[in-house]
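Hey everyone, long-time lurker, first post.

I ran two proteins through the pipeline my lab uses and got sequence/structure pairs for each. Pasting them in order. The first:
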Amino acid sequence: MMWETLLPAFVMAILTFSIVYVVRIISDNKLRRAIVDSGNLGENAKYLFSGIKTDDSLSAIKWGLVLIALGLALFLSRLFFDSDEGEITLGLMFLFSGIAFLIYNRIANSHFRGLGERQKTG
């Protein structure tokens, strides 16, 4: 019974992720072409074309927090609500994932603030 309710959510999540990923690839490619066509290539252009992300650890923290929050929401909805109340489960998932994004925002801001201070002193 649980898989019957979660399967559409998984399918929608995979479909949404796929669409967002394809749109991101297309927009990154258009941006790179526009920069090359404009002729404004500086020292930092190697990072643009290398595909190296500057800080993968923050991305991992963000998605780790979100997945933990979603798991916690599912666990709490099954623990406290015996019947199949999808609205409560969905509400908890949105609530906890929103809290996870706010926590990530605080972590990212403190991380980048620390980088700025190190660059000024270094």
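...and the second, right after it:
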Amino acid sequence: MALNKYMAVNQWVPLANNVEKLKNRKEKEGIGRFLYVHLKWNTTDCQLAGHLGVIFSLSGVWEFNGKERGFQFRRLNKDWRDLIRGYYCQSITVDEE
């Protein structure tokens, strides 16, 4: 996954998914901008950067800086597929109980 590789070469990475700033190409380097520039996502889809951050953090792939403003993430584990799958399976099991 290109995004996980991007996260690996950086320490703390900002969310950086402001729609207006992305459209004007004034958004700082970060997850949203990476999705927009390198993966060619549209600005609306780049809003999913926040959701990816939550899912990857809860599953143990990334770490969240815990701030209310200035969200940043860093990669903790390169094995994202197994961790995401495990988190998903755990969520399903909890929901079924």
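Reply from user beta_strand_b:
Welcome! Quick read of the second one: Strands lie at 13-14, 62-64, 72-75. The mean pLDDT is 92.
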